Amino acid sequence: MTPTTATGFNDPTAQRLEAIATGAEPEVVGPLLADALHDPRWKGCDVALISGGKSNLTYRVACDAGEVVLRRPPLGHILPTAHDMVREHRVLGALEGTAVPVPRVLHHGGADSELGAPFYVMERVVGHVCRNALPAGYADAPEGRAAIGEALVDVLAELHTVDPAAVGLEDFGRPAGFMERQLRRWSEQWEASKAHELPALDALREGLVRTLPPQRAEAIVHGDYRRDNTVLHPTAPGRIVAVLDWEMSTLGDPFTDLGALLAFWSEAADDAVLAAARIVAPVTAAEGFPTRSQVIERYAVQTGFDVTDADWYQAFAFFKLAVVCQGIAARAAGGAMLGSGFDDAQRLVAPLVDAGRHLLA
Question: Has domain 4-127 been given CATH number 3.30.429.10?
Answer without folding.
Answer: no
